[in-house]
Amino acid sequence: xxxxxxxxxxxxxxxxxxxxxxxxxxxxxxxxxxxxxxxxxxxxxxxxxxxxxxxxxxxxxxxxxxxxxxxxxxxxxxxxxxxxxxxxx
Amino acid sequence: xxxxxxxxxxxxxxxxxxxxxxxxxxxxxxxxxxxxxxxxxxxxxxxxxxxxxxxxxxxxxxxxxxxxxxxxxxxxxxxxxxxxxxxxxxxxxxxxxxxxxxxxxxxxxxxxxxxxxxxxxxxxxxxxxxxxxxxxxxxxxxxxxxxxxxxxxxxxxxxxxxxxxxxxxxxxxxxxxxxxxxxxxxxxxxxxxxxxxxxxxxxxxxxxxxxxxxxxxxxxxxxxxxxxxxxxxxxxxxxxxxxxxxxxxxxxxxxxxxxxxxxxxxxxxxxxxxxxxxxxxxxxxxxxxxxxxxxxxxxxxxxxxxxxxxxxxxxxxxxxxxxxxxxxxxxxxxxxxxxxxxxxxxxxxxxxxxxxxxxxxxxxxxxxxxxxxxxxxxxxxxxxxxxxxxxxxxxxxxxxxxxxxxxxxxxxxxxxxxxxxxx
Amino acid sequence: xxxxxxxxxxxxxxxxxxxxxxxxxxxxxxxxxxxxxxxxxxxxxxxxxxxxxxxxxxxxxxxxxxxxxxxxxxxxxxxxxxxxxxxxxxxxxxxxxxxxxxxxxxxxxxxxxxxxxxxxxxxxxxxxxxxxxxxxxxxxxxxxxxxxxxxxxxxxxxxxxxxxxxxxxxxxxxxxxxxxxxxxxxxxxxxxxxxxxxxxxxxxxxxxxxxxxxxxxxxxxxxxxxxxxxxxxxxxx
Lengths: 89, 423, 237
Fold this sequence. Notes:
The complex is a heterotrimer of chains A (89), B (423) and C (237).
Chain A: H1 2-12, E1 19-20, E2 29-35, H2 39-47, E3 55-63, E4 66-71, E5 74-79, H3 80-83, E6 86-88
Antiparallel strand pairs in A: 1-6, 2-3, 2-6, 3-4, 4-5
Chain B: H1 6-25, E1 26-28, H2 35-43, H3 49-67, H4 69-86, H5 92-110, H6 113-129, H7 131-145, H8 152-158, H9 163-168, H10 176-185, H11 195-205, H12 210-237, E2 245-248, H13 256-290, H14 301-313, H15 320-329, H16 335-344, H17 349-359, H18 362-374, H19 379-389, H20 392-419
Helix pairs in contact in B: 3-6, 4-5, 5-13, 6-13, 10-12, 11-12, 11-17, 11-18, 12-18, 13-19, 14-15, 15-16, 16-17, 18-20, 19-20
Chain C: E1 5-12, H1 18-26, E2 30-34, E3 41-49, E4 52-58, H2 70-82, E5 86-92, H3 96-108, E6 113-118, H4 120-125, E7 128-130, H5 132-139, E8 143-145, H6 154-166, H7 178-192, H8 202-210, H9 214-221, H10 226-234
Parallel strand pairs in C: 1-4, 1-5, 5-6, 6-8
Antiparallel strand pairs in C: 2-3, 3-4
């Protein structure tokens, strides 16, 4: 019963399905849900401010491989590869 | 338990606390868009970003190596003048020590003061204004492919002027492996001191292909640097270069106070090196080429050394004179030309060219140019590799790998040349 | 006579104006070199204030003290091993939330902290008003507002360093929630019986242990209470 409940409720926590931050286009904003970057890297991202519950905004994309993102009041430049490890909704 | 591991939970809790405290102590009025937004739209623009970067780089490069030239010339002139005075000392040995050894050595080392202070002034400006972080970001994709970091690019480019400030500028690279890779391959960037050697040798033996041959040295150096960077990354350090993630600081007007302190502190590191290890090295070279007293260069310790290593270099077609010249080039690569002059007993560069044209084949000449490009960093560069890596092991490694690489590449050139029917 | 030499560690996130603060504090009395055995630049400086001679070590700019990067390891080792008399954390007033993360970790480390709340002019121009007195009360740490680029607040910062040295105030631990706190206190209990581990701030050690910090984990593996710790961590799995 409990298991059923949670499996029904789980997706409802998200307004949309979690998707990687790399899929956002410039100007779009979303809330960080979780970071899935393997041991050290998850921590690195979390410590730069990519924490569940925090709003992120993609400012612009200077080239196809990278993005400038605003999170917690700072602008961070990173490659799309890293962004795909941050899931937002 | 929420089902989350503590590992993930604790950082989140820290941010929860941080967020609560922030809400209690920060009053937000209205938020205005910052000027950094507008500037980044330009400096990181899809099409404008790179041209602006290259323009800035060009300006910094000219500033470092052209604007500083009068300073270097003045220092050079000063020590030549001092050397001439010292040469009038009655005791012959003492005169030679003071003039050729001390003044000559100090002159060789201190001419770098100009470019180094000027370079760090320019870097300080770029850093303090917030632009350097953007520049690194712009170049990261390219450099990443060769196992380096975005910040490595500027350091590599500076190497075309002089490897010494270039290696010192790797201080802007945060990751240790990225920085070490950049330091190790930097001597392959053909510095301006190597140009006179190319010009004289190519002019002597390459005929109408002289300028193409000179240019090919720069390409060869760059190609080898990128190749070795990739190799070191794969074999020595393992893994990828650190993926690019970097906070872009807000732009701000550079503070002259900060820029001057930035320049001064780094310049002083070099001055201290110059006064100690570099001067000592120059004096050792003077000693080797001057003693036994009155024996002449061929029978000096350096000459004997040249004869001793000649068999090793014979397969490349280098005779003992070229060997000694390379040995002297260890002090500063432009000395190779001067050394050849002494060895052939002529003064003018044209005369050196004329003799070379008669004594070596174009193939040997080309192999000699490549060897000069690669073989070992000059004394000053070795000193700075030591102080920047903080390790004799890496310093010796850089000397050893460059020597081996020089030999291999020159041997390949000779072998390929013979195969194609040159030489 | 008490000790008149004060060792200060200067720490802060990247881009908070740390080098400006460092330059203002020490003027031209600086020395740069490398951290022993590392290719990371080490800056040190000196100044005299109210009869004290203050030695300032500029630590690398870091977001946290997790020891993932070399910079973080250097900063953390310095604070843990060298035990500076005072740690000055430069906090960017225009970006308080993000900067508080490092502050909290320094509190965990039981460093004798002074906060320089820098760039208050920038914060104001961006529409923020940071109440530094309220922040000081929240954290029980002295907070000095500064604008390092203009030299504002530097003398006050020097005063704060001296008074923190004279009256060290161990920072109040900040609760991370019941579940976490329970695990922390169980670990702290376990650590207490080990003489080797007692050299370190136990609460910090416990938190690092829960965060699976590699360095701390290997420290604990060598200690006498490894089995006990495994027991405490066991309920998590």
